[in-house]
Amino acid sequence: MSRIYVIHENNEWVEPLRDKLSVRGLPFEEWFLNTGAVDLGKTPPEGVFYNRMSASSHSRDHRYAPEYTAAVIAWLENHGRRVLNGGRALQLEISKVAQYTALEAEGVRVPRTVAAVGSAELIAAAEDFQRPFITKHNRAGKGLGVRLFQDVTALTGYVNGPEFVPSVDGITLLQEYIASPKRVITRVEFVGCRLLYALEVDTSQGFELCPADACRVDDAFCPVGEEPGLLFRIQDRFEHPLVAAYQRVMAANDIHIAGIEFVVDSEGVPYTYDINTNTNYNTEAEEKAGRSGMDVIAEYLGRELVRVERAAS
Length: 313
Ligand SMILES: Nc1ncnc2c1ncn2[C@@H]1O[C@H](COP(=O)(O)OP(=O)(O)O)[C@@H](O)[C@H]1O
Ligand SMILES: [Mg+2]
Hints:
Bound molecules: adenosine-5'-diphosphate, magnesium ion
Strand content: 15-25%
CATH topology of the domain at 3-93 and 293-312: Rossmann fold
Radius of gyration: 20 Å
Helix content: 25-40%
Largest sheet: 5 strands, antiparallel
Structural class: alpha+beta
CATH class of the domain at 3-93 and 293-312: Alpha Beta
Shape: globular
Number of strands: 13
CATH architecture of the domain at 3-93 and 293-312: 3-Layer(aba) Sandwich
Order of helices and strands: EHEEHEHHEHEEHEEEEHEEHH
């Protein structure tokens, strides 16, 4: 019998989806792909495979989960299996450079960014970079390595100090800081490439704290976190030219389910800076708006399963 396979490395994040799939009575199985062994000579089971591998998996001690998942997906795709958020989507999930180039290819504006390997190279790149700027990890999620700097001296102190942690792939990004006068960012959610809703996130506590914690974002900006003072608000009827552009990016990169983030500067220009193929939804905001992203995903997975079964019979 064919089923829905959910590929992931974080039990907690799958809980809401598990519930919705169960309520709908859909047959599913989880593939927790931290370690494992895939026999390339074997035939994969029939079904629909939903990849929820996360860029931040190494922060949960699952260092090679994305690499292993890439191997498994290559095998699945080679056998013609339907993989939602396939191999190319995974490449984007674990590299912001891959995200930015894919966005630019579809005419979406991204913040000016330099990708650096090596501390000296990072500092040198900042010398003639516009200020203020931020750093972030190329392979991130959860705001890993996001810090705001007013000048090169501050960056140098950080990079040469005890708090500096390089990205797990060695690539640190230096990026133009986009100041939002409204102090919000918007995360546009898609399921099956269709707009689900846009989530507005209040970032007023983000970069404005004082020195020590000044520019720490960390988990606070992960929409699953319930940080006090952070506001998540669903915009139900979101209409924006970026929606169609994002859909083109998704189509070109084998992405079916994603949350894409942008920030608008003082001139009203939107800059897109993050594609999350492993998206999570904020419970409070959804309850307020009477929406459930995970239920929409469950319904979508159910429809895809029917399609796959019909094609096979
Ligand atoms: N270029 C930028 N200008 C201003 N704020 C930014 C910029 N990039 C990131 N941020 C802030 O930092 C948060 C985390 O950065 P993001 O690129 O989304 O990394 P992650 O993949 O770890 O979520 C964002 O939600 C946003 O609030
Ligand atoms: Mg983000």
